[in-house]
Here is the input.
Amino acid sequence: MITNLMKMTTRERDNYEMLSKDSGVRSSLVEKFINFKQGDVASNTFCYVVDTADDLMETANKNVDKYIREKQTEVDYEKEIEKAFALKNESAPSVPGKTSEIISRTKHYLLKPQLSFERKVDNSYFQFVPMIRHKENALTQLHPRIKQLQTEYAEYLKKNPKIEYDMNASVLHIKTPHPYEDEIEALNIDWNKMVEEVSAITSTLPAAVTESEFAFIDKLEQLDQFMIEIEGCKELAIDLEYHSYRSYQGFTCLMQLSTREKDYIIDTIALRSHLHVLNRVFTDPKVVKVLHGSRYDIQWLQKDFGVYMVNLFDTGEAAKVLGLKASLANLLKHYCDVTANKQYQLADWRQRPLPEEM
Here is the structure.
């Protein structure tokens, strides 16, 4: 016995010492030693195999029974998700029954807009690759590491055309700076001048929706005209409608943009591959972009369109500085005496054409 112990590896010796301290294991070994018969080795081995197979079959049967029981009482998860969303927004004024109807209206028959995207959706774990190729309003050129990552990604796509299904895509870990890091850092606001300009503005309530000039943009020629109209503006108000209810990563469906004179709605599904032109204005430091709670909007713009912002004013952050409740509904009520209607907050913004009520 001592000789055999000396021949053991360290790992085998550790396992032996651990098992030898277990009274159950010790008793079982002693019993087997007492009852051991040299001629029964083959039959004993066969019995062990049979016992093991029986145990595995019993475990499998238990799991099958458990699955059948759970299946019989299966929860309708879609309804539960809708309930959760409704509870989250139950304080918002709405028309009874309408929200659920709007969410489920296109549940079964809407063709996925993602299928028509020129740039295919990447649901892999590949490192995020900025799609920007040219910097508008640039102080410095696009960083070489961004170009390197784009090249590596293009090569990867050639070898893996089904990357949208590849959840094991390699991550390159090429550290890249923000494309507009230098421009954002160089932004210098003349606060005294800004106070003078703001003080000179006559505050007026926005016109009623039915009286405001409005344009819906879903064609390239309309987008070109839109860019001409907004390039002379000093400030723009922007909001996005994003869909993630039936999408792994989600995507931007609409952009609402307002100047002091006109309101625009841009179909970001139809014009998805062309909205990089917004960088001409969105990265212009002389134009103030006004958003509320912009954290996710900024990410969506970068991910979906390669659009960036320089000189951003977030009314949500401003409200916190002023000691006000940061919700948009509260600010609308406080400054404009408008009660926000969140009836369509959970609407399916993928629908085309949009229903009249939306």
Remarks:
- Confidence is low (pLDDT under 50) at residues 87-97.
- The radius of gyration is 32 Å.
